[in-house]
From TrEMBL:
Family statement: Belongs to the glycosyl hydrolase 32 family.
Residue span(s) of domain Glycosyl hydrolase family 32 N-terminal: 133-276
One Gene Ontology MF term: hydrolase activity, acting on glycosyl bonds
Pfam families (alphabetical): Glyco_hydro_32N
Entry keyword Glycosyltransferase: no
Protein's name according to its UniProt entry: Family 43 glycosylhydrolase
InterPro entries cross-referenced by the UniProt entry: Glyco_hydro_32_N, Glyco_hydro_beta-prop_sf
């Protein structure tokens, strides 16, 4: 179970620094303006498939000379986790559901969404997985009830020797153990290991706010750390990526962290939701895993009417191949409950 430190009050200098936008040259190496324009993985047309309603939350990595993607499938009851493979980062073939709900397990009886497997943190590496004590280590979140994200989710570990069969491990974060900003439930976990310390980045939501404060809930991103994968410590100044001011692209949500390093720089890709309901991918940069400065540039914007991402363009996953940066994201068109939700990609070099 995680322990919680007393929140620290940031200094005036820290507060001002966190609100300043980065200059465009700092962001230029991470821009991917060239959208593929199609879904590279969409809902399975089979009515019995675990992902026949929607496909969501990509996580891309390299393994034994091939590219792989874990993703979340929705069948109308809850989330389950799938795996796909590719040789060219565009054509993906399904390998099946690798984490299914378990009616006998009170944690995963309706949902189990694995969002990350421990991998090489360096952006310009091949993106290969790292083993811990001879096994692959994943992190998941699970909602307690049937339905679309019903109830306050928690975060746990899972283990595998072959990427196809997974053993559920410890539950490491529960919303009731956290501060007010995360009491409504926990979302996507992102696990990074650096010099013997594990950093678990995650977004969480508040309880519903009163109408006087805009109603609904807010999502922000925090971090916890561990050296043994047993005891986890919440960072005393969480959340590390907070909601922006009025009219900002992350006024309501600052969510779904994807954290990598580039030299000494830490990159936290995430998506923001503004007051108008527009979700788009953003970037914050830092010199360490605790202090990030937001860029004012939108990395992946929603497309015009009729495109695959005309409603949302969010939930990032990035990988570099042959010098090109590929930015995968969940592309949504239409409106719920008739929306089309799948995975698309943009990259730094034009498509030819």
């Amino acid at each position: 179970m995680a322990t919680m430190d007393r929140p620290a009050i940031p200094s005036r200098r820290q507060f001002l620094a966190s609100s300043l936008a980065l200059a465009a040259p700092d962001v230029a190496p991470y821009l991917t303006p060239h959208k593929y324009g199609k879904l590279v993985l969409g809902p399975d047309p089979s009515p019995d498939a675990f992902d026949h309603r929607s496909v969501d939350c990509p996580f891309v990595f390299r393994h034994k000379g091939e590219f792989y993607m874990t993703y979340i499938g929705w069948d109308g009851t809850g989330y389950q986790t799938g795996l796909a493979a590719s040789r060219d980062l565009v054509t993906w073939r399904r390998l099946g559901c690798i984490l299914r709900r378990d009616p006998a397990n009170p944690i995963t009886r309706y949902n189990i969404a694995m969002n990350w497997i421990l991998r090489d943190t360096r952006l310009r590496s091949k993106g290969e997985l790292k083993k811990v004590r001879g096994r692959y280590l994943g992190v998941f979140h699970a909602y307690p009830n049937a339905g679309y994200e019903e109830g306050p989710a928690l975060i746990g570990l899972c283990w595998s020797t072959d990427l196809l069969h997974w053993e559920i491990g410890d539950i490491i974060l529960r919303p009731e153990d956290g501060a007010d900003w995360e009491r409504g439930g926990l979302y996507k976990p992102c696990l990074v290991e650096e010099q013997g310390t594990y950093y678990l980045f995650y977004n969480a939501k508040s309880r519903n706010l009163p109408k006087s404060e805009g109603g609904g809930w807010r999502e922000q991103t925090g971090v916890v750390t561990s050296t043994d994968l047993k005891t986890w410590k919440r960072y005393e100044s969480n959340p590390i990526v907070r909601n922006g001011p009025a009219c900002s692209p992350d006024q309501r949500f600052a969510s779904d962290p994807c954290v990598v390093t580039d030299g000494k720089r830490w990159l936290l890709f995430y998506f923001g939701l503004d007051a108008k309901g527009k979700a788009r991918d953003l970037l914050a940069l830092g010199d360490d895993p605790y202090h990030f400065t937001k860029s004012d540039q939108i990395l992946i914007d929603v497309g015009p009417p009729g495109t695959v991402d005309s409603t949302y363009a969010h939930k990032p996953s990035v990988i570099v191949h042959q010098g090109d940066l590929y930015h995968y994201y969940c592309a949504v068109s239409g409106k719920y409950p008739n929306e089309v939700r799948g995975i698309s990609v943009a990259r730094s070099r034009p498509w030819t």
